[in-house]
C-alpha cells in the first residue's frame, strides 16, 4: 500500500510556487490505491484534497487534511472508425504530452490546446479552452470515483454540464468525485480553426504554405511562449481570471466610452470581454507589490516572484477585481481554484 506521509511541502506541486505544507500527503496511480488511501485517511473530519498538475490552484494557507496527488497513467486507443479515433487517457498524464501523442499520430482536435499546463484530469473539470477550441468539442466520456460511496461512475458530455471554464465537477459535484481517466474523440481528417487570436498571423510569419495540425500547434506554442511566463521560471497559474460576459446594452455603453474595448459575441446573445484588456486599462499591467505582481506582458496573469504567500496573491486579485468594477462596472471572476 502507498504510504501516507506527513508535513509535506507543496511548493513543487503548484505552479504558483506557494510555499505551504500538507499535514498528510500521498500519491496514487490506480483506483485501488485511491480507495485504500481514502479508507486510511488519518483525518476523517476533512475531505481529501485531490491534486493534479497544480496549475490552476491557489493555496491561501497550509492544508490541515489529506492531499492526494493523482498520478494515474495511461494512453490507449479504445476504438476507432473511418473518421475518428477514441483515446483513453489517465487523469495523471501531462496534458501537453497527450496533445503531442495526438499530433504524432496525426489525429486532429486538440492542436489549438497545445502547451496548456496541467494534467488530463483537469481538462473536463475546467472545460479547458484556448484559441477558439474547448475540451467539450473532443470529449467523449470520463470515469470518476465517488469519494463517499466509493463507486466508479461514467460521465458522458451531457452529464458534465460544460460551460465556459465550467463543469459539474467545479460546482454541483465539487469535492465529491475524483476523475480517473478521460476518453477523447479525435478526427482523422482535420478541421482547422485558425481564426481566433493571432494564429493566422503567426502561421504567416512562420512561412507555412500547407496547413497541418502540427503547424497550428507550433503557432499556438509560439504565441503562448511569447505572451505567458514559464511556471518553471516564475510562479504563475496562467490566466488567473475568466473573461467576463456582459449584456449588449452595457457593451455598447462601454464601446462609446472606450472605442478600443475588446469584445466577442456569445451564442446566448451576451458579449464576452477580454479580462486582460480591462485589467491593463485599469493600470495593473506590470504592477508589483513585494513578490506578488501582474505579469509585464499579459495582465491576465498574476505572478509570484519568489516568496509571495497565497494570501498576497489573493489580496492582489481582490484589489484588481474592485478596480475593474469601479472603472467599467464589470465583475471579474477568478478562474483558479482557491483553497
Fold and architecture overview:
It catalyses: UDP-N-acetyl-alpha-D-muramate + NADP(+) = UDP-N-acetyl-3-O-(1-carboxyvinyl)-alpha-D-glucosamine + NADPH + H(+). GO terms for molecular function: FAD binding; UDP-N-acetylmuramate dehydrogenase activity. Cell wall formation. It is found in: Cytoplasm. Its EC number is 1.3.1.98. It is built from nine helices and 20 strands. By secondary structure, the protein is of the alpha+beta class. It has three domains: 5-70, Uridine Diphospho-n-acetylenolpyruvylglucosamine Reductase, domain 2 (2-Layer Sandwich), CATH 3.30.43.10; 75-187, Uridine Diphospho-n-acetylenolpyruvylglucosamine Reductase, domain 3 (2-Layer Sandwich), CATH 3.30.465.10; 235-338, UDP-N-acetylenolpyruvoylglucosamine reductase, C-terminal domain (Uridine Diphospho-n-acetylenolpyruvylglucosamine Reductase, domain 1, Alpha-Beta Complex), CATH 3.90.78. Strand 10 and strand 11 (152-156) form a beta hairpin. The longest helix has 19 residues, at 310-328. The two termini are 28 Å apart. The model has no long low-confidence stretch (mean pLDDT 94).
Amino acid at each position: 500500500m502507498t504510504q501516507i506521509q506527513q508535513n509535506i511541502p507543496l511548493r513543487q506541486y503548484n505552479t504558483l510556487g506557494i510555499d505551504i505544507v500538507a499535514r498528510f500527503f500521498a500519491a496514487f496511480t490506480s483506483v485501488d490505491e485511491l480507495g485504500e488511501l481514502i479508507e486510511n485517511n488519518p483525518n476523517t473530519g476533512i475531505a481529501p484534497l485531490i491534486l493534479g498538475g497544480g496549475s490552476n490552484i491557489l493555496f491561501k494557507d497550509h492544508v490541515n487534511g489529506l492531499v492526494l496527488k493523482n498520478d494515474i497513467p495511461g494512453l490507449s486507443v479504445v476504438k476507432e472508425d473511418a473518421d475518428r479515433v477514441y483515446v483513453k487517457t489517465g487523469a495523471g498524464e501531462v496534458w501537453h504530452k497527450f496533445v503531442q501523442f495526438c499530433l504524432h499520430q496525426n489525429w486532429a482536435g486538440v492542436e489549438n490546446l497545445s502547451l496548456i499546463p496541467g494534467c488530463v484530469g483537469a481538462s473536463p473539470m475546467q472545460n479547458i479552452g484556448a484559441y477558439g477550441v474547448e475540451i467539450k468539442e473532443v470529449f467523449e466520456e470520463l470515469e470518476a470515483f465517488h469519494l463517499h460511496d466509493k463507486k466508479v461512475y461514467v460521465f458522458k458530455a451531457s452529464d458534465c454540464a460544460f460551460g465556459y471554464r465550467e463543469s459539474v465537477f467545479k460546482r454541483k459535484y465539487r469535492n465529491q468525485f475524483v476523475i480517473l481517466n478521460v476518453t477523447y474523440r479525435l478526427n482523422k481528417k482535420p478541421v482547422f480553426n485558425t481564426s481566433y487570436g493571432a494564429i493566422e498571423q503567426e502561421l504567416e510569419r512562420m512561412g507555412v504554405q500547407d496547413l497541418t495540425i502540427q503547424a497550428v500547434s507550433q503557432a499556438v506554442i509560439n504565441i503562448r511562449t511569447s505572451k505567458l511566463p514559464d511556471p518553471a521560471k516564475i510562479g504563475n497559474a496562467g490566466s488567473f481570471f475568466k473573461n467576463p460576459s456582459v449584456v449588449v446594452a452595457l457593451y455598447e455603453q462601454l464601446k462609446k466610452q472606450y472605442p478600443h474595448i475588446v469584445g466577442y459575441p456569445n451564442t446566448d446573445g451576451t458579449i464576452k470581454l477580454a479580462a486582460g484588456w480591462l485589467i491593463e486599462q485599469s493600470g495593473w499591467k506590470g504592477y508589483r507589490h513585494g513578490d506578488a505582481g501582474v505579469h509585464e506582458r499579459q495582465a491576465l496573469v498574476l505572478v509570484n516572484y519568489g516568496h509571495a504567500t497565497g494570501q498576497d496573491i489573493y489580496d492582489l486579485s481582490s484589489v484588481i477585481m474592485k478596480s475593474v468594477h469601479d472603472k467599467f462596472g464589470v465583475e471579474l471572476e477568478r478562474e483558479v481554484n482557491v483553497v
